[in-house]
Write a structure and sequence with these properties.
The chain is α+β, with helices and mostly antiparallel strands and about 70 residues long. Helices cover about 10% and strands about 20% of the residues.
Length: about 70
């Protein structure tokens, strides 16, 4: 998952505008690996990374842990 760190218009996604803090890619759009690499590096029209990888701490498929103390 990637977070937008610099506002940009994705020229490969019909000029869709990504605002600061948004998740990339938007729902319904699947970029190529090369496109993600381009946007997260300096080889793009802006010349600097516009998205940054982050690990989503919220896992919706995880079950809550049982925090009950065990009897001795």
């Amino acid at each position: 998952m990637y977070r937008v760190i610099e506002q940009f218009a994705d020229l490969q996604d019909d000029k869709y505008i990504y605002d600061l803090g948004m998740i990339y890619p938007r729902k319904g759009y699947t970029p190529t690996e090369d496109r993600v690499k381009e946007l997260s590096g300096t080889e793009n029209k802006v010349g600097k990374p516009v998205i940054q990888y982050f690990d989503d701490p919220v896992k919706t498929d995880e079950k809550p842990k049982n925090n009950k103390k065990q009897k001795k």
